Amino acid sequence: MKVSILGFELTPSKGVDFQSIYDNLIGMSDSEIKIFGRIHVPYVGIANNYIQGLILSYRTSKKSLVSERDANGDLLVKKNELGAGQHGTEVSIFTINPLTGRGVMYSYYGSLSETGYQNFFKRSHNIVRSELKKKQRQKSKDKDELKRLFGETNTYEFKILKTPADLDRLLEQFQDIGSISLAAEDALSVAGRFQPLETYAKNARISVKMDNENHTIKDIKKVIKKVFGHWDKNKPKSFTLAGLAHSGQELTRRLGENSDDFGKINYDDYVEMLPVAKWKDFHSCVAATDMIKILNSNTVIFGQVP
């Protein structure tokens, strides 16, 4: 079984800040909570100025089966049963940059699911939003002021971050853009002798090399947004930018064919990377420290180190 490292983005509703959400998550540490009828135990703290948490997910089964061969080569049946107070456990770890709300999480079959993570964060967010609104009502009965501070609706959002999520996100990753490539299922207008082939073409590709010496990156991004900002996303297309990241490294990003994860590891290796003795000491385990390395080396995506 593979454990994926997924990127995600948490966007609080208007008037709700990450410090308040973090304070609420801290209050839940080492307590049992239910998500979709399953018991989970979270631990949350700060590591290198990132918000970092570990979530234990208890399995409902108390028994497991193990097979092994005896000296005669026959398969033996072994029925293992957990003792009183013991729980079969799966482990999820997440790390969030509080400046951007973007982070990474370990995910695999049996651990906290994507919708489970969404529910976990939403629970704290909604409690915080309700408490902040209650305090504001005690200060002022002005309903218009309440709407101005918190908006008319709860706009909390949790989404898996596929690099990049949209054209704006793609453009902000670049310090310099060297070339653009666009491939589309519908044939693109091609000048000269190839134009008569448009009727018969199944797909086409256009590549443009950018003139960075005579034009600013700001101007280039502005034109790209004007040309590609409102294209029909329902038709199969591939839009690729190549250039330099803000770190100076070569960078290629493709809109429409984005990567789904930031790495995969074997489950057995993941287990070895987890804490040795106490779950609450998870910040120093390899699985947790590796997450911070991922965020620190991908500041283009996750934001500057807080």
The backbone outline, from C-alpha atoms, is globular
Task: Provide the succession of SSEs.
Answer: EHEEEEEEEHHEHEEHEEEHHH
Average pLDDT metric: 83
Class per helix and strand makeup: alpha+beta
Strand content: 25-35%
Rg, Å, rounded: 25 Å
State the helix count.
8
The largest pleated sheet is described as: 8 strands, antiparallel
Outline the low-pLDDT stretches.
Answer: none
Total E-strand runs: 14
Portion in helices: 25-40%
Spatial separation of the terminal alpha carbons: 33 Å
Name a few traits of the molecule.
306 residues, alpha+beta, 4-stranded antiparallel β-sheet, 14 strands, 28% helix
List the helices and strands and how they pair.
Blueprint: E1 2-11, H1 18-28, E2 33-35, E3 38-47, E4 50-58, E5 63-69, E6 75-81, E7 89-97, E8 102-107, H2 114-139, H3 143-150, E9 157-161, H4 167-172, E10 174-184, E11 204-209, H5 217-228, E12 237-245, E13 250-255, E14 264-266, H6 267-272, H7 286-297, H8 299-302
Antiparallel strand pairs: 1-8, 1-9, 1-14, 2-3, 3-4, 4-7, 5-6, 7-8, 10-11, 10-12, 12-13
Helix pairs in contact: 1-2
Summarize the structure in words.
The protein is of the alpha+beta class. Helix content is 28%, strand content 33%. The chain is built from 8 helices and 14 strands. The protein has helices at residues 18-28, 114-139, 143-150, 167-172, 217-228, 267-272, 286-297, 299-302, and strands at residues 2-11, 33-35, 38-47, 50-58, 63-69, 75-81, 89-97, 102-107, 157-161, 174-184, 204-209, 237-245, 250-255, 264-266. The strands form 3 sheets. Strands 1, 2, 3, 4, 7, 8, 9 and 14 form an 8-stranded antiparallel beta sheet that branches. The protein has a 4-stranded antiparallel beta sheet with strand order 11-10-12-13. A two-stranded antiparallel ribbon has the order 5-6. Helix 1 crosses helix 2. It is globular and about 75 Å long. It starts with a strand and ends with a helix.
